[in-house]
Amino acid sequence: MAVPRVVPQPSDFNDLQCQTYLERQERERDQGRWRKFLEFARQKDEAASVRRLLVELKAQAQPEGQFGGRSAVEWLTWAEQWLENFDPLLRWPESLYRNLGDVQARP
Questions:
Q1: What is the per-residue pLDDT for 37?
Q2: Which residues are 67's β-sheet partners?
Q3: Measuring CA to CA, which residue among 32, 42, 52 is closest to residue 86?
Q4: CA distances from 27 to 2, 21, 35 (A)
Q5: Cα distance between residue 34 and residue 30, in whole Å
Q6: Dist. CA 105–CA 21, nearest whole Å
Q7: Tell me, what's the pLDDT at 13?
């Protein structure tokens, strides 16, 4: 059975310890936000790559038949739908900023 982790509260410390604790929490939160921002940058690059692939695939004649229960056109539509949810630029900017603001320091 897992033992619940006790998260220290600012009232558990003297003034200097409290200040140090709060500063560390802010640094950790800031570092987490930067990691999240880098994640968005990687997602944007990956989304751009997927978008280029979709353009190239659409420029070609699509094969007939079913592939895993879907036609080639259905697979393209499937990829476009995933891309809409994956690309941070399509959720830009409010969702991106909200996600950055929601990052918390590790307890």
A1: 92
A2: 70
A3: 42
A4: 28, 10, 12
A5: 6
A6: 11
A7: 65
DSSP state of 14: -
Quote the pTM value.
0.69
Q: How far apart are CA 11 and CA 18, in angstroms?
A: 8
Query: Closest by alpha carbon to 20, among 5, 10, 33, 34?
Result: 10
**DSSP for residue 69:** T
Q: Locate tokens 């991106």: which residue? A: 96
Task: Output the pLDDT for position 12.
Answer: 66
**Residue 41 buriedness (CB in 10 A; 0-12 / 13-18 / 19+):** exposed
In whole angstroms, give the CA distance from residue 96 to residue 38: 12
Grouped pLDDT means (10 residues each) for the chain, 107 residues:
65 76 89 92 95 96 96 96 88 84 81
